[in-house]
Task: structure prediction
Amino acid sequence: MKKGEETVTLTKDEYDKLKSFEDQLAELKRLVFGSKSERFISTEDADQLALFQQGKQVEDTSSQSITYERKKPAKDKKQPVRVLLPAHLPREEEIIEPEGLVEGVKKIGEEVTEILEHIPGKLYVRRIVRPKYVADDQKGVQIAQLPSLPIEKGNAGAGLLAHLQVSKFVDHLPFYRQVQMFKREGVKLAESTVNGWFNASSQLLEPLYDRLVVLLKEQDYLQADESPIKVQDSHKKGSTHKGYHWVYHSPLKKMAVFDYQPSRAGSNPTHFFKEFKGTLQTDGYAGYNQLQEDITQLACMAHARRYFEKALDNDQQSAEHALKVIQSLYAIERDAEELDSNTRQQLREEKALPILKDWKVWLDEQQLATTPKSLIGKAVNYTLNLWSRLIRYVDHGDYLIDNNRIENVIRPLALGRKNYLFAGSHDAAQRAAMMYSFFATCKINEVNPYEWLKDVLHRIPDHKVNDMDQLLPQNWSIDH
Result:
């Protein structure tokens, strides 16, 4: 290294430390100014130029004569076709008669114009009237039984409770904002009242959540990830505790379970999977290493790709080679997407396995040639440390190459976290985990979360415990 006329000699540790600082600076610049997309486009693709990138211009002083024919535009320009409005929407008809109609005119037709309109969500009062009757003998009064309500002796209906929770956990509107919106409509609700309704309805749904957890643990193949959430600390006013939502997902049976725990300790998944005997796919977090040996573990190829994508500025040639290999593996997965499990496994063994074997040889060579603390060194070491788990997806056609589906499940949690900032207590965080479990399962199964929750809150007070599975989102339909 030269500084002016002076030559500075660094030891190996000092050089490694300097390179580490350079890599950190490059990563910070990438996060602030770079693209957030992980899509990889090889620099060898000369046909595609980056935005603002100019190709080589070559001046040509020769002249040439160019002739061409131009089609004359049609006189009758086509009018844009307006999309028909959905037939299921209610229609409010408005008839406008022409002014100055003379007597004896005949109607020969009509012009109909449909306009999509909107009014704010309406609240209404469900007034249940139960007449009382008494017989002539005056021996007793007869009155109909009050139907079961979601909250006993409460004045909130299933539709309102469902709206409040869907607005918070699906549309990311905290309760205090919803209270303000109701106030604009002339309805004053105390935030403490809304929180009380949420707690009571959550208690009603707990048996359904417990059943969802049991069914998920019975599956052979699951994915796992964890995401932080701030929880208000009851011991220190104004401070928050960092808790975690541990998220478990069944790709085959389309179920998701959020489990809140106060920490990220490896004992949490160990306790959750105490009786689990199947295959678990994770991002390689060390906390899962404590799981019992009879659980088969898979890793995530998307996380390996992420490490190499970050290393592009550190060692472009090596990082691009790895990204091309991973790109070819994903191309095979796209071809296998519509195949059945057995055919998909055969395709992987035929095409993906040779690529993986060659890549392993290259990774071993790179491990000897790269600095462990460099970005490319970290990418190589991460991949090799999890190699047996990364390539295990080839062994079974039902396994996925990455953990991306569970990251999609977690995304609503990250969006909501930006709006309501923290949970009020550990119990509140677990109640939120329960609702995220239901709504994530609704989303995976393309079930309308409002219709589902309104129906379940209406039915569950009188529902048989043995038939609880009928109410789970993956089994529910509006026809029920």
About this structure: Residues 46-60 have pLDDT under 50 and may be disordered. The longest strand covers residues 221-232. The radius of gyration is 31 Å. The CA atoms of residues 86 and 92 lie 14 Å apart.
